[in-house]
């Protein structure tokens, strides 16, 4: 059996995403980071198990840290900045 293939698609507003093939009845997408993801990123990066497993993230990962990272990822300097799993809707998650 051939492995699944994944196609880069775009939402009606032009945001890139990849729809994942899963057994879940809820659609799962890989999308770019959005400015509204900053609070969730802070919560995730504040978990010692996550923060300590990564190379050189700021300790005391703040909202400013998250906003800086998201701005860097959305700056156009990254070829394909897909970094977030969203469920249900590729546009809003």
Walk me through the structure:
25% of the residues lie in helices and 20% in strands. The chain is an alpha+beta fold. It has two domains: 1-33 and 75-93, no CATH class; 36-73, no CATH class. A hairpin with a 5-residue loop joins strand 1 and strand 2 (16-20). The longest helix has 11 residues, at 63-73. It is globular. The mean pLDDT is 90.
Question: Summarize this, please?
Answer:
The protein is of the alpha+beta class and 93 residues long.
Which helices and strands, and how do they pair?
Blueprint lengths: L7 E3 L5 E5 L7 E5 L5 H8 L2 H4 L11 H11 L8 E6 L6
Antiparallel strand pairs: 1-2, 2-3, 3-4
Taken as a percent bin, the fraction of beta residues is: 15-25%
How widely separated are the two ends? 31 Å
Q: Which term fits the overall shape?
A: globular
Strand order of the largest sheet: 1-2-3-4
The pLDDT mean sits at 90
For the record, the count of structural domains works out to 2
By DSSP, the count of extended strands is: 4
Q: Rounded to an integer, what's the Rg over CA atoms?
A: 15 Å
- H/E topology pattern: EEEHHHE
The helix fraction, in percent, is 10-25%
Tally of individual helices: 3
Oligomer state equals: single chain
The major sheet is characterized as: 4 strands, antiparallel
Identify low-pLDDT runs: none
Helix-strand makeup class: alpha+beta
Give keywords.
93 residues, alpha+beta, 20% strand, globular
